[in-house]
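Problem 12. The chain below contains 178 residues. Write out its predicted structure in token notation.
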Amino acid sequence: MHRTTRTAAFAGLLAALAAPAAAFEVASASLHADGRLDAAQAYDGHGCGGANISPEVHWRAAPAATRSFALTLFDPDARGGRGWWHWLVLDLPATQRALAAGATLPTGARTWRNSFGESGYGGPCPPIGDAPHHYVLTLYALRDAALALPPDADAARVAALLQADALASARWVGRYAR
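Solution.
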């Protein structure tokens, strides 16, 4: 190989190695361009009158060592800043890359009790007249294929265990008001 060709090949290899890896990202078609969530995602109860349909969620560029995913939806504005857990999905397979709106979970995945006391999705239901609440959806790429959780673990404990097991996490934030 000619010196110029080797130099060009070496420069190309260095550029490829230095190129940033695609960032781990989560997104949702259920989120409007201005960040609003639809009433379809709002809770159906406590006077909220929504359809309680979980949002569509998709992601890309998870770390190669990912063995499972978990997803949480949290409102940090609720209960005077103490927050409200709306959705906790655990043990999503490492091959999963999306959940459709109103998702039926894949085999092996499970939901945990939210702040409504239900296992599954419980949509936004802020008090009437409150400023729009923020709904933080966090996707975790996890080291373990399944999380070992005590049966009485509350949502905050589950979230702490997810953070401890995470290789990476990605977020999007929606807003909703009534």
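Discussion. The domain at 24-176 is CATH 3.90.280.10 (Phosphatidylethanolamine-binding Protein). Students who got a different answer should revisit the alignment rule from Section 12.3.
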